[in-house]
Amino acid sequence: MSTQLEVLQSTLAAALGERVTVTVALGEVTLVVKAADYYSVMQALRDNAALGFDQLIDLCGVDYSTYGEGAWDGLRFAVVSHLLSVKHNWRVRVRVFAPDDEMPVLASVTSLWRVSNWFEREAFDMFGIIFEGHNDLRRILTDYGFMGHPFRKDFPMSGYVEMRYDEAQKRVIYQPVTIDPRENVPRVIREENYGMK
Question: Where would you find this protein in the cell (predicted)?
């Protein structure tokens, strides 16, 4: 008798064929998809009755530039999605790498799952990943005038600009960062009886 995980693997292989690479680790199935096949694979995952992944649970960006302590030599930016099939009680992770590190562009899946709208906007805002076909791709967490993408590994900890209220101008202004960069080192408590009552 085969397990539910084995049934899911064989169903995915039959439905998607060579368009995906299927891996299983820690009881979770991950599909790695090429950018050119991303939209069609996501549509098949949703529309194929044998799969029925009707819910997009999460979609996020990832910057692999320092992955493995710098040993990573693959593409830099990826989008990772988590899908759920309520009918079959299956979950699957889908990973797709943007083919260009300088201008990461992938297809939008907002026409398949409306919930991906804000997820894709967040990935755009934080990582600079552009989603082709997204009809409202604008910043969602940072200010409209914000420069850069703060979740990229090369973004400085203190940022590039800071904002403050200027009493003379009676408005909020932006200025270059005046904070000196520093290494954040946790405070070490060396008291013998610290935390003891």
Answer: Cell membrane
Per-residue pLDDT tens listing for the chain (197 residues): 358 888 899 999 999 989 999 998 888 999 999 999 999 999 999 999 999 999 999 999 999 998 888 788 899 999 999 999 999 999 999 999 999 999 999 999 999 999 999 999 999 999 999 999 999 999 999 887 788 899 998 877 766 677 778 899 998 887 777 766 666 666 666 667 666 66
Contact 177, 162 (CB under 8 A): yes
Count Cα neighbours of 101 within 13 Å in the Cβ-side half-sphere: 10
8 Å CB contact between 32 and 23: yes
Which domains, from first to last, does the chain contain? Answer: 4-144 (3.30.460.80)
Read off the DSSP letter of residue 187: P
